[in-house]
Automatic annotation (TrEMBL):
Entry GO MF terms: ATP binding; NAD binding; NAD+ kinase activity
Keywords (A to Z) from UniProt: Kinase, NAD, NADP, Transferase
Full protein name: NAD(+)/NADH kinase
Species this protein is from: Candidatus Segetimicrobium genomatis
InterPro entries xref list: ATP-NAD_kinase_N, ATP-NAD_kinase_PpnK-typ_C, NAD/diacylglycerol_kinase_sf, NADK
GO biological process, one term: NAD+ metabolic process
Reaction catalyzed: NAD(+) + ATP = ADP + NADP(+) + H(+)
Keyword Iron: no
Length: 228
């Protein structure tokens, strides 16, 4: 693989202030990258706290400038980073900070070795399916979303139930009275969909999981459909 010359750091600012270990790891990463002559950019909120205000830029700008983004945070930070990085084709490397960290690739103890391998081009890319959702109103796209884990259609008010009609490639699949519907990627199959009774799917399989949320029937089950 190509050696990396520009690295972005996206550090969860709450974890940065709450956990000294996070600040230590982020500072060590900056020092190592500087020693190797690599250009480093940091999300603006955390750059100030790390003493590198001049390197601070917005999260969206990280994806436009960096060749890879190293994420210090939980799965939520990784998911947010993925939404910005995916349209630019920029890979991300998650650092597990001791929480759930399902999407994190390396631990803090392995970070230095992982960075050396990254800079030397000794790595492989693990591509994951992502979902794009559009909300259409009056024949126009009102909102558009990109997701690594899942897209959730749910009720807007408490104690309401939805009639969810699901179609695949224009063909009717099912209609549910439910609290909503989870449309999950294989990566997201171990998240909200799993909690709602959906199956676990290997990340490399090209499928989409449709999982109703609290359907008002005993017969509703999650459905796995082709991702093509």
């Amino acid at each position: 693989m190509t050696a990396v010359t520009v690295v972005g750091l996206n550090v969860n600012v709450e974890k940065l202030h709450a956990t000294p270990e996070v600040a230590r790891l982020a500072r060590e990463a900056v020092s190592l990258l500087e020693e190797r002559g690599v250009a480093v950019w940091i999300n603006r909120e955390s750059a100030d706290a790390l003493g590198h205000a001049a390197r601070g830029i917005g999260e969206g700008e990280l994806a436009r400038r960096a060749g890879v983004i190293v994420v210090f945070g939980g799965d939520g930070t990784i998911l947010r980073t993925a939404r910005a990085a995916a349209p630019q084709g920029i890979p991300i490397l998650g650092v597990n900070l001791g929480a759930f960290g399902f999407l994190a690739e390396v631990t803090g103890a392995d970070l230095e070795r992982a960075l050396h391998r990254l800079l030397g081009g000794d790595y492989q890319l693990d591509e994951r399916m992502m979902l794009r959702a559009r909300v259409e109103q009056a024949g126009r796209t009102a909102q558009e979303f990109l997701a690594l884990n899942d897209i959730v259609v749910t009720k807007s008010g408490y104690a309401r139930i939805l009639k969810v009609r699901t179609a695949v490639n224009g063909e009717h699949l099912a209609t549910h009275l439910a609290d909503g519907m989870i449309v999950a990627t294989p990566t997201g199959s171990t998240a909200y969909s799993l909690s709602a009774g959906g199956p676990i799917v290997h990340p490399a399989v090209d499928v989409i999981v449709l999982t109703p949320i609290c359907a008002h029937t005993l017969n509703a089950r999650a459905v796995v459909v082709s991702g093509a």
